[in-house]
Each structure stands twice: as structure tokens, then as C-alpha cells.
Amino acid sequence: MNSKLTTNQERAICSQLGNFKLKLLYKASIHGFTGAAFHLRCDNQYPTVCVGYNNSGRVFGGYTRRPFSQSGQYVNDDQAFLFSFSGEKLNKYPCINAPYAVKMHSNCGPYFGEALVFVNASQPIVYCNPGQYYNFNAAEMHGNNLNLTECEVYQVEKTAEIVKPWRPVIWESKRKTELMESIQFYKPLNSSVTQARVLLIGPVGAGKSSFFNSFNSVFRGHVTGQAMAGSTSTSLTTQFRTYSVKAGREGKPLPLVLCDTMGLEENVGAGPDIDDISNILKGHLPDRYQFNPSVPLQSEAHGFCKSPDLKDKIHCVTYVLDASKISIMSTKIEEKLKAIRRTVNLMGIPQLVLLTKIDEACALVREDIRNVYQSSYIKELMQEAAARVGVPLSCIIPVKNYSEELELDTNTDILLLSAVIQMLRFVDNFFDDISGQLSSVTTGK
């Protein structure tokens, strides 16, 4: 039996569950669109995911951790949920009346609280009645097409645990203090530079500004939001901004400047122009330069730095990608990233990737962020990010930004600080390379 789910759809479902995989138990087109066929293969199996397909191209279903039976009774499941797909994005609808989450009906397939019933009355149809047990929009769920072309039921199986984290991390307050001190007392290898400059580049909503705010929060001692951040379809950042973090409210600036740009967008003429990015890398753009995607910066523009020093240039580029969207990254965004990467490569600037929103992508990490390097799913996403951007896995750093929290979390801080430490190590690589070039020129090699 072959699964009808795409790999990305299966990943999206599993991301809601944790470190799991799906095993196909029942396929209506093979075993029959009857309650008897469903129960024969699925009774006493749990947890399960049911997926329905119709000839409108809709994919929708539900999850329950309770075993199926033919008792005729409702069963309580406070973790049950329904879902639908918009392309490969999963829309989730939690159960709102847990005692009636699932009904065990002998003449039907999976029966979710009178709200959504698959293979209803042993027919290739769906019964739908949202509102009382699960709240969803019927048109969004199945396009008001109740005729099934396929119905599949999967058993949710736990994947092999990575007992030992594949990247060791010390999750202790003492380690957080050590990382903060390493950043605070860092000195660039080139004496003419007092602050390393790291450029953040990524799609709209990936979390560039949020990363700065989160890093800044660690040194402020509380969650703060200096850079404008949020969730919109277009970039909230419209200027080139350079952010310096202070070691505490009245402390000295850290030896690091994080540079923020407009978010990358799919449309031509939207987001930062490749020439603007090139000018940023070379140190030509002034702070608060207002982006105009249709008109690249001209050398005659106000504030244009015609002869930038090494301290004005970018010393490391960090791409910021949303872990929960890496599998559905559009071709256009991928092409823009590759074009930028080619430009950065030509300038010999080291490159990293921050994978944000790891808690949204994986339930195991959402449960405890310390599971980040024990989650096989997160490792898969990191491998995919490495392939899409074209960098080694060692250049992919997973982090969680502060978004809804009001107080700091030591483990979240350790991941954020570790990411910055890696940036500074790559900055050192840049200065090492510069030093090597100067030595070659001096010795005539």
C-alpha cells in the first residue's frame, strides 16, 4: 500500500505530535469504503491519524490517541484535533468538547464528535457538522465537497529516540553566564574594528527582528522589543537598521552589531534589491537607509559611504529561516537566497543559517526546548535547510525567539547565545582570511 500523503504533508502532521512517524493501516480504495473494513484493520490501534481526500483536491482529517472499537460510545480525548491543508500548510482545529471527541460507531469510519465522520454509513462520503465539538469552516476544511475519493488511516508510531543528543549542550545557568561573558569580552581579530557586523537576511516573518529583540532581551534581563517585529505578509522592516546591544540597561555596547534588512518576498520588485544587499555587504549603506525595491541605492544618494572602512563592512551573513515553513519554501524565495549567496561567496564572507520557530515545528521541542538535538524531525529540517541554502549542516543553528513570553527562560537563552557565539567564530574566520590576504600581498606571494 502506498500512502497518498506527500512527504511534506506527513511532516506537517507529525510536527503536531512529536517524534513520530505514520504507518498506513487502512486504505478505503483497497479495503473498501465500509465501517466493517475500517474496524477490521483499525480497531484497538492507537494513536491514529485519519486522512480524507476528495476530487476537489482537498486533504483533511483528524487525530485521536484513543483506540477504535465498535462500542457505540463516545470517548474522551482532550488531545484530539481535526486538520485541513491549504497547499502543504496545516490548519489545526482542536476538540472543544473533549468528552465527545470521538464516537465508536460500527457502520462508519473515524467518527469525530458528530463534527466530521468519514465513510459515513459505509459510503464514500463525509458527514460534516462543525461548531459543537470542533469549530472549523466547512469550506476551508473540504471545499463543501463531501464525496471521498480516498480515506486513509495511519497508526502513529514513535520513531527511534536519539538517546544521546547529536550536538552536546550544557543546559545550566552557569553556562548561560559563561556565554554572556564570552560575547561581552569578545574582541575582533582586526584591531581597526571594535564591533563585528553581522547581517541578517531572510523571508518576511522568519524572525530576523525577533532574533535581535530576543538576544537583546538576554542582556537586558527581561523580554523587550526594540526592533519592530510581528506577523504580516509584507516586511515590517523597511529600513536598513544597525542594532547595537548593551550589556545591561546602562552597560557598554557589546562588540557586535546586528544589521537588519527588509524581508525577502516572492514578487519581483518586492523586498531588498540584490544591489542594495551588495552595497550593505560592502559597507556603503547608512543606518536607517529607506529601501526602495524599484530603485537601487545610487552612489550620489545622501549618506552613501563611498570609501567604507573594514569596520563598516559586513563580516558575517546569517540567513534566518522559519523551521515550520522550510519544507514549503517557494521556488522564488529559494532562487533569491541562492542569488544572494552567490554575491556573498564572491566577497568571501562567511555564512550561517538560523532556523527559528523550532518549537512551532516540533511538538517534542515545544514540550521541552532541551530536546532540540534529540528530535530527529528537527535534524531533518536542519538538513533540508542546509540543502536549500547550500551550506554544511554545521552552519545550521536552531533557535527559539521570544514571541509570547514575558519572562526569560535559561534554556532559550542558551540557544540564542550559542548562535551568537557561532556568528563571532565565523567573524573570526573572516578576519583570519583578510589577514591571510594582507600577508600574501606583503610577502609578494
At a glance:
This protein is α+β, with helices and mostly antiparallel strands. The chain is built from 12 helices and 18 strands.
Write up this protein.
Helix 7 (274-282) runs parallel beside helix 8. The termini are far apart. This protein is α+β, with helices and mostly antiparallel strands and 445 residues long. It has helices at residues 7-15, 28-31, 35-42, 138-142, 173-184, 208-220, 274-282, 331-346, 358-361, 363-367, 376-389, 410-443, and strands at residues 20-27, 48-54, 59-64, 74-75, 81-86, 89-94, 102-103, 111-112, 116-118, 126-128, 148-158, 196-201, 239-246, 253-260, 289-290, 316-322, 351-356, 396-398. It contains twelve helices and 18 strands. Helix content is 30%, strand content 22%. Strands 15-13-14-12-16-17-18 form a seven-stranded mixed sheet, sandwiched between helices. Strands 1-11-2-3-5-6 form a six-stranded antiparallel sheet, sandwiched between helices. A three-stranded antiparallel sheet has the order 8-9-10, with no helix packed on it.
Low-confidence stretches: 230-235
Number of E strands:
18
Radius of gyration: 26 Å
Order of helices and strands: HEHHEEEEEEEEEHEHEHEEHEEHEHHHEH
Backbone shape: elongated
**Terminus-to-terminus distance:** 64 Å
Please give the share of residues in helix: 25-40%
Give me the secondary-structure category: alpha+beta
Placed side by side, the strands forming the largest sheet appear as 15-13-14-12-16-17-18
Strand content: 15-25%
Sheet with the most strands, sense and barrel status:
7 strands, mixed
Average pLDDT, rounded to a whole number, is 88
Question: How many H/I helices?
Answer: 12
